[in-house]
């Protein structure tokens, strides 16, 4: 017994050392929202940490504030760039908290903290075309109330925010019914004169590029949105070297510098990582003129081809295929046995098909948001659960439909030969129903390939990453570079199932 104690102490010590080594090896996970500036700031944070010897991974384009905040709170990411006004309004839900000290006191019970003010304010504002504003005599938000017929195209997040459209409309007496638009697409819409007024971030690069006038907030509705790092309280202890390296970022990014970096991405088409690397090397200190990327490209087709064959093609395609195969496989393992069990029970079968049909009607982004809150995580797990749920209905309904095609005479014949119910199902009913079941799996694959692109909104990877980034940059070529490979996967899936069905038909003819 005495010899056991030293062995136990040694084992516990070794286990503690292993845990410590694992904790030190755990990467710093940096998140971002789904707009240009957030992508760039995430790369700056990650590259700064890597320069200090810390392994860092970036989870880009996770969505709006609610999704990224949930990822931070649940430990899926460790830090991301946020804005003081957003923290006060959307997270702490107390506009009176304006200082870092106040915000840290309010965030402490959540296990979060805020620090490293980056040096610039990126506020919300409304803007319209300068020529139209001059024609109508509009210079401030108060002037908008005199023109109720103006068309508003506002980002969906701004429409729903506590510091967004609802409060703004009340403060200024605006009666318009805004149209919800993706922030990147709204710039194209206002340039094409499909809308008259849009919400902007004051560091957006396209404000001057498109000749927009930022309307004066003459009643001081919008708070300040100073850029800071929102992080988990244990970050300084888990990654001390990275945390020390991040401190010199305080005050380093000016508003002009941020506008310049946004322009490098949106107008020149430079990559986020390259922009961050240039900034950390000492560039992007001012707002030097940035050429429009349209002037330097040799044509849309050439740009599209460059995007299509980029280095990330096979990685993203592999991630996309993995999401589809796992989700459809899981749905088949659930739906086919369920269809067999429910087929004899008419009421239960109708109830199950109705429930699966209701699940199919839930918008994919809404379902993903619910799953993030329920599971407390982002990434592939909630994406796989959602894709599996969407794949169940076609497989379940086709399994029941295929079994209904088996004639009563064949069932009676099987029973007359002395077959048990499982034997009759195995040798008579399922072979007849199999083509219809395969058609259901075929439909589920087509649905999953298309829906899996949405998974990129919560950091699950796949070809949707290109689409999400393209939306943020309003880059049509990049969006197509994500959509076209997904379409090719859908066509290959159809070809595979067509060949499989032909093979099964030949097998039945031989028998």
UniProtKB/TrEMBL annotation:
Signal peptide: 1-25
PROSITE patterns, per the entry: ABC_TM1
Keywords: Membrane, Signal, Transmembrane, Transmembrane helix, Transport
Domain ABC transmembrane type-1, first and last residues per copy: 317-497
Pfam families (UniProt xref): BPD_transp_1, OpuAC
Compartments, record wording: Cell membrane
Gene3D superfamilies: MetI-like, Osmoprotection protein (prox), domain 2, Periplasmic binding protein-like II
Cross-referenced CDD domains: PBP2_AfProX_like, TM_PBP2
Transmembrane segments: 321-343, 350-378, 384-406, 427-458, 478-500
InterPro entries per the UniProt record, alphabetical: ABC_Gly_betaine_transp_sub-bd, ABC_transp_perm/SBD, MetI-like, MetI-like_sf, PBP2_ProX-like
Topology class, membrane: Multi-pass membrane protein
Domain of life: Bacteria
Record flagged with keyword Chaperone: no
PANTHER family: GLYCINE BETAINE/L-PROLINE TRANSPORT SYSTEM PERMEASE PROTEIN PROW (PTHR30177), OSMOPROTECTANT IMPORT PERMEASE PROTEIN OSMW (PTHR30177:SF4)
Family assignment from sequence similarity: Belongs to the binding-protein-dependent transport system permease family. In the N-terminal section; belongs to the binding-protein-dependent transport system permease family.
Name by which UniProt lists this protein: Osmoprotectant transport system permease protein
UniProt source species: Comamonas odontotermitis
């Amino acid at each position: 017994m005495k010899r056991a104690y030293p062995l136990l102490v040694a084992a516990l010590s070794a286990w503690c050392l292993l845990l410590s080594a694992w904790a030190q090896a755990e990467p710093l996970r940096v998140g971002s929202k789904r707009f240009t500036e957030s992508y760039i700031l995430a790369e700056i944070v990650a590259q700064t940490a890597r320069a200090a010897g810390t392994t860092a991974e970036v989870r880009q384009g996770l969505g709006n504030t609610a999704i990224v905040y949930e990822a931070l709170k649940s430990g899926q990411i460790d830090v991301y760039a946020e804005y003081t006004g957003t923290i006060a309004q959307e997270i702490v839900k107390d506009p009176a908290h304006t200082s870092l000290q106040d915000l840290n006191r309010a965030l402490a019970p959540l296990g979060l903290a805020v620090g490293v003010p980056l040096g610039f304010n990126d506020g919300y504002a409304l803007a319209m075309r300068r020529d139209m504003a001059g024609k109508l005599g509009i210079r401030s938000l108060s002037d908008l109330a005199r023109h109720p017929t103006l068309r508003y195209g506002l980002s969906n997040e701004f429409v729903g925010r506590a510091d967004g459209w609802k409060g703004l409309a009340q403060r200024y007496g605006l009666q318009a019914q805004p149209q919800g638009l993706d922030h990147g697409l709204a710039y194209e819409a206002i340039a094409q004169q499909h809308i008259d007024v849009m919400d902007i971030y004051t560091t957006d690069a396209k404000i001057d590029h498109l000749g927009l006038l930022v309307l004066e907030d003459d009643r001081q509705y919008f708070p300040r949105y100073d850029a800071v790092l929102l992080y988990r309280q244990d970050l300084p202890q888990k990654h001390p070297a990275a945390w020390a390296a991040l401190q010199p970022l305080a005050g380093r990014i000016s508003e002009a510098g941020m506008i310049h970096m946004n322009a490098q991405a949106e107008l020149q088409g430079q990559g986020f990582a390259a922009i961050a690397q240039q900034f950390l090397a000492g560039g992007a200190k001012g707002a030097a003129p940035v050429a429009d990327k349209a002037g330097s490209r040799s044509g849309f087709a050439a740009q599209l081809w460059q995007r299509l064959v980029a280095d990330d093609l096979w990685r993203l395609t592999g991630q996309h295929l993995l999401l589809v195969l796992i989700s459809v496989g899981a749905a088949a393992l659930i739906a086919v046995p369920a269809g067999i069990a429910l087929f004899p029970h008419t009421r239960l079968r109708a109830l199950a098909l109705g429930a699966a049909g209701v699940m199919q009607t839930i918008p994919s982004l809404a379902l993903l948001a619910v799953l993030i809150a329920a599971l407390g995580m982002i990434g592939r797990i909630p994406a796989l659960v959602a894709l599996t749920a969407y794949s169940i209905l076609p497989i379940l309904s086709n399994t029941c439909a295929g079994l209904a095609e088996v004639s009563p005479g064949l069932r009676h014949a099987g029973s007359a030969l002395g077959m048990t119910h499982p034997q009759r199902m195995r040798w008579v009913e399922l072979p007849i129903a199999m083509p219809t079941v395969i058609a259901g799996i075929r439909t589920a694959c087509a649905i999953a390939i298309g829906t899996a692109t949405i998974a990129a909104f919560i950091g699950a990877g796949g070809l949707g990453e290109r689409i999400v980034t393209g939306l943020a940059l309003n880059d049509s070529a990049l969006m197509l570079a994500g959509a076209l490979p997904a379409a090719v996967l859908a066509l290959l899936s159809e070809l595979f199932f067509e060949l499989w069905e032909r093979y099964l038909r030949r097998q039945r003819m031989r028998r």
